[in-house]
Amino acid sequence: MAREKIFVTREHIIPEAIKYLAEHHDVDVWDERSMPPRDVLLKKAAECAGMLTEITDIVDKELLEQTSTLRVVANRAVGMDNIDIAEATSHGVLVANTPGVLHESCADFTFGLMLSLARNIAYGDRQIRAGAWKVFDQIPYVGTDVYDATLGIIGMGLIGTAVARRATAFNMKIIYYSRTRKPELEESLGIEWRPDMDAIFKEADYVSLHMPLTVETEYMVSSRELGLMKPTSFLINTTRGRTVDPKALYEAVANKSIAGAALDVTDPEPIGLDDPLLTLPNVLISPHIASASSATIRKMGQMAAANIMAALEGNPMPSCVNPEAVERR
Ligand code: DGY
After folding, report:
1. What pTM value is reported for the model?
2. Which parts of 179-259 fold into alpha helices (H)?
């Protein structure tokens, strides 16, 4: 097979995948830790056959219109909200993502956030470092049990399902809302479907978001939805920051209409140091790392590289979201 040009937008994240690609193709990498500037991304897109991207690299109409060489964009992520898929399809560019390799890591992390928020683990650590542990006094750190509580999952894909599986070990009642009902999971995990999302916000002690960011889910969780939650309930967001209206969330936590929130994703990212959410002790924020275990990052890199290899060879790709793009070339 002829060697093709591939641009990888971050070198340090997936060195093994880059090495593998470089055995077969001419690989150009952006070797800084920050994302390539827009002009670099546009220039590379205009000369490459494949790009291996991160979620901050915007692949939009402008970029796609400027390239006649690009045949595949492989995101090292399951989410693809940085890519205009319809536009890519119309330009004959295949788009790939990495489902099936990160859901267990994300589910572990979701549970970590939930436990840490409910039981004040990160808060306690913050207080100790600030010099606030002077006497034995548990009262400022009294939390809420996760065990036996009701977990509401919105979006029952692979990650939502992996979270539900963990929740069974905590004896949680699990309710879910998903575009497609999953009778086999209801049967095997004993989870209960709710036909509308409002029921999840009303009933759950912990609402965990696992739907992708789309036009329909953008700012889907706002004052109305947060207003449905109990004052004792928590919101966990590990999907995309833009699914939750940050101002509404601030109001809901500050006014104690919900008990707190744990966010692995924010709007914007990175969150500004002056963001009011950071003033709230019962808001726990991590820097978008739910999938970031070393094994999972490696698998995501391998899958993204395999997607590129297959696309350039005209073989079936491990995960292509628009196979019909081929006919548009
Ligand atoms: C994903 O896979 O979409 C994560 O958010 C980035 O690792």
Report:
1. 0.97
2. 183-189, 197-203, 223-228, 246-254
